[in-house]
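Summary for the steering committee. The consortium agreed at its last meeting that each partner would contribute one worked example illustrating the joint modelling workflow. Our contribution is presented below. We chose a case with several input lines so that the handling of multiple components could be demonstrated. No manual editing was applied between input and output; the record is shown as generated.
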Amino acid sequence: MTLPDFSAAIDPVKLDKLAEVAIRVGLQLQKGQDLVLTAPLVAVPLVRLITAHAYKAGASTVTTFYADEETTLARYRHGHDESFDRAPGWLYDGMAKAYENGAARLAIAGDNPMLLAEEDSAKVGRANKANSIAYKPALEHISNFDINWNICSYPNPSWAKLVFPDLPIEEAVRKLADAIFAASRVDRADPIAAWAEHNAELKKRSTWLNGERFAALHFTGPGTDLTVGLADGHEWHGGASTAKNGVTCNPNIPTEEVFTTPHALKVEGHVSSTKPLSHQGTLIDNIQVRFEGGRIVEAKASRGEAVLNKVLDTDEGARRLGEVALVPHSSPISASGVLFYNTLFDENASCHIALGQCYSKCFLDGASLSQDQIKAQGGNSSLIHIDWMIGSDKVDIDGISADGSKVPVMRKGEWA
Amino acid sequence: MTLPDFSAAIDPVKLDKLAEVAIRVGLQLQKGQDLVLTAPLVAVPLVRLITAHAYKAGASTVTTFYADEETTLARYRHGHDESFDRAPGWLYDGMAKAYENGAARLAIAGDNPMLLAEEDSAKVGRANKANSIAYKPALEHISNFDINWNICSYPNPSWAKLVFPDLPIEEAVRKLADAIFAASRVDRADPIAAWAEHNAELKKRSTWLNGERFAALHFTGPGTDLTVGLADGHEWHGGASTAKNGVTCNPNIPTEEVFTTPHALKVEGHVSSTKPLSHQGTLIDNIQVRFEGGRIVEAKASRGEAVLNKVLDTDEGARRLGEVALVPHSSPISASGVLFYNTLFDENASCHIALGQCYSKCFLDGASLSQDQIKAQGGNSSLIHIDWMIGSDKVDIDGISADGSKVPVMRKGEWA
Ligand SMILES: [Zn+2]
Ligand SMILES: [Zn+2]
Ligand SMILES: [Zn+2]
Ligand SMILES: [Zn+2]
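What follows is the complete predicted structure of the assembly.
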């Protein structure tokens, strides 16, 4: 095999705990459910453990689709120009059908965030757009929370190398593995109980925010003076949540955020990113954007600006917000001091906003709202959903009520 | 990684030639075609080379679906009983859709033929049946030759161990790799030219048989006295062949056979297998069956008889023939003396018959015949198509013409 083998650097007991948490907490996989699993090729050891736990939990079928960095690159090396406007729609349509028939969905994250950094950004943009269009029907089942789903992660060596560039590769894999295990709470004596406790804490925060019913949040900090109007009838969520199929699951492992839907037309001011954003193989750093009437009218970045602008041009909704999320600066992931170059981790180390598609579950009675109703209440729609980090220990947040009164929400990055 | 790494035992130049032959001869992949690739997980090195050649040839997208022996076994170890009646229909339906939209299909063979030998044969049978039913729409595009398709193979260590049980594993992988390369003609100076020559030779044999228009073939040998009536308007094929999408491809690499469609109602007598048959993880050896009116009315095997009987009970067509094929005993694969426990190789070392589905292309003007017409002419239909070997250097074959006259076709396993 030409796959790098650093699995000896990964604690096998904790890896098995991660697999168990992914199935029992992340998915709450039900007896008789099919499972659609996607993973980087190097994540084979975790896939095998997850598959075993899935069958123990009564899975009907477990079907894994692997992505291989080498074959992704082969397309850029050898593919004809027309190839970059194509995507395997047949596969995504099949996945959409699986979800319609009740399958759960688990994604193992851990791809090399810099894989495509050296490739032609026009081709990267075209390939991403073709993929987004083809994937939309499947993604909608996820973003509408029709089914129980989860993302967890595996310490891919190419990712570990980026996070710990100065360490020998085995040591980097070991450190990234340990950081993933700690953030995923599988280093605790009883990870299942630890997750129950954590979910209760996040519930407390979202319950308070739902009681306040703020009309907007006002962010101030270095390079940031941003007012994010919240959607009419928005609802805050965090931690475990119940999908439309009735299954209560933890879609993200790890998760530290409480989040809701901004009003797509009511965002004003300017904001600066506080951590780099890794988007499908390209790093976008020091983003600075200005909003008018909810729309990004100016966008800069010190790195990856061309890809950022391609992203913003995906569709009209790509220039508007679909999510705003609060994470204290002292959260364990932030406290680790590690920059993961991976949204699943970095968004849980920092307050963030997301360009693009909103979550219908972040509305009161969201499950029964039509697409038109969601739009009328300020919910954004787009082919994309891209989180980027705007929190730090220098950011203050006020909640602004309908009558204009202000309530401190966060001070210097901590709950006020 | 927990994958065994014996790729150092595999000649990288010949492996790349195999990838090139698979794309340029096996598939004749067309510019703009999507490619659906399936492979055992250990075949990653060959998948990467094939993907590169596919993109060089102008592939739109190359999508690989891997099968992992470990996760297949995990289901038998941990799966609940109901799981064994389920299959990932969403994936197979997606594949069928890909073929309808013009995708080509390449399968890398090389799974451990004994993988499921120790598992509960009732569960193996149920899982196979569920899979066959779910896979039928996709398989029909292959068996109807709607698209260009190919099977080639990779020296999986678990397969190599079975073929060369007395050798150290690296040595077994090396020997199996070399046997695959020789049989696939990629050990020649110019493999593409070697395939053109081989295709011309097979064409000469099928042209002669089509000129003779035999009504039946009569096989005699140890434990065998079998008359195989041929379907009305049958046509012999061998080597390169043109799919309904207009692409001339070599569906099997290697291939040594010329083959046609028997009459599903006109097979009489008894026949003994001359090589073991490996069927989805179980070895079936010393098969002895008796036909009456085209139907198997008695079936025995010294090993795997329970699985054989499950196979025969799949549906009515599973007890009738869908293919008869002629291969000289002196063919290179047979001459190698290696028993591959893999149909792709062993069927090309020996005359064989297949239970189940017939190929519509093995009829004169087959592409324009309806399913009803094919049935009326004697074509069999079934969820399965399983080749098994009945040729040896002790078998004689006569062609029987409509007027009852006999023409020698093979004597002691060689063309007469
Ligand atoms: Zn978020
Ligand atoms: Zn988000
Ligand atoms: Zn055959
Ligand atoms: Zn066959």
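Residues 285 and 303 of chain A are 5 Å apart (CA to CA). The pocket of zinc ion (ligand 4) is lined by residues B 323, 354, 385, 387 (CB under 6 Å).
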